[in-house]
Write a structure and sequence with these properties.
This protein has 296 residues and is an alpha/beta fold. The chain has helices spanning 39-48, 63-75, 93-104, 130-138, 152-161, 183-196, 220-230, 250-264, 269-280; strands at residues 8-13, 51-57, 79-84, 108-111, 142-145, 167-169, 200-203, 235-237. Helix 3 (93-104) runs parallel beside helix 4 and helix 6 packs parallel to helix 7.
Length: 296
């Protein structure tokens, strides 16, 4: 481990236990993802990469899974907090969010509806979600925007109505990196979001957006666009492990991302690989103090 890289924060990783039964998307996922992914497997890879803290992000659209992540976070000393899930359309959404905040006991950092799986491209702008966004802000939580490119305009509409919302774009807005004419359809709304809102952006999930027939060099214009739009003060590196394993391993992605950061934002690596995530998620200087010992 390079000591210059010590103390990094992974702003986006997952765990799941398949037998829990609420990961509906896994039924259509590649076979290699249809198994358990838990802390004992990731810990050595994070340690070797100099990653000392991580944000654990929901992978199922249930409050039960969010509470399961609280349990794992209490056992995994690297996890600084959880981005969970709640039904943004529920009539009692404020009570649901309050209960998750209580049960997390300091671990709940934000919420993420799985908007990418919702057919309506305008869903995020619906007024029926206003109560959820109001509650989220009232409780001091962040908003993770997991969206498709066609949902980016609705995200902008939401952010323009709620300029105080602390929001981050997951996986650069999930461009389809396939070598065809999709770049402009993604790049233009991303630029508009960066210019017209305070949205931050996760430098994550891009390897698995890359078409299998394309070399990794095809990422360059997409990464360059994100750096140009958001700059080094609004980018948060994340692994997206274990989805990452479809295209590469933890060490390879962090090394590739560091190379891009060194070229595109020299001198700002500490912010991209840790400082920005700590500020955005309002992390305490150390991880959550109430930990259970890891048992194997």
């Amino acid at each position: 481990m390079n000591p210059l890289h010590a103390g990094a924060i992974d702003a986006h990783q997952h765990y799941w236990r398949v037998q829990r039964g609420d990961y509906g998307w896994l039924a259509d996922a590649p076979h290699v993802l249809r198994r358990d992914f838990l802390p004992f497997e990731l810990d050595p890879h994070r340690a070797a990469a100099g990653v000392t803290r991580a944000i654990l992000v929901q992978a199922a659209p249930t409050e039960a899974e969010t509470r399961f992540l609280f349990e794992l976070a209490r056992a995994d000393r690297a996890v600084a907090g959880v981005v969970g899930w709640v039904d943004f359309e529920a009539a009692d959404v404020d009570a649901r969010i309050a209960a998750l905040v209580r049960d997390g006991d300091g671990l709940l950092l934000g919420l993420r509806p799985m908007a990418q799986d919702i057919e309506d491209p305008h869903w995020l702008a619906r007024p029926e979600l206003d109560a959820a966004f109001a509650s989220l802000q009232r409780h001091g939580l962040a908003f993770d925007a997991l969206v498709r490119p066609d949902q980016l305009p609705a995200l902008l509409a939401r952010l323009e109505r709620e300029p105080q919302l602390r929001a981050v774009l997951d996986h650069g807005g999930k461009p389809a990196i396939d070598g065809v004419a999709g770049f402009d359809a993604w790049a233009a709304p991303v630029a508009a979001l960066a210019q017209r809102s305070s949205l931050q952006c996760k430098f994550s999930g891009l390897l698995t957006q890359l078409a299998p027939n394309l070399p990794e060099s095809a990422l360059a214009p997409y990464v360059e666009h994100l750096f140009a739009c958001f700059g080094p003060s609004r980018l948060l590196w994340g692994s997206d492990w274990p989805v990452l394993t479809l295209r590469g391993d933890y060490a390879h992605w962090i090394d590739l991302a560091r190379a891009y950061a060194h070229r595109l934002a020299p001198g700002h690596e500490a912010a991209i690989f840790g400082g920005n995530a700590a500020a955005f998620y309002r992390l305490a200087p150390t991880s959550h103090p109430h930990r259970k010992e890891i048992t194997s």
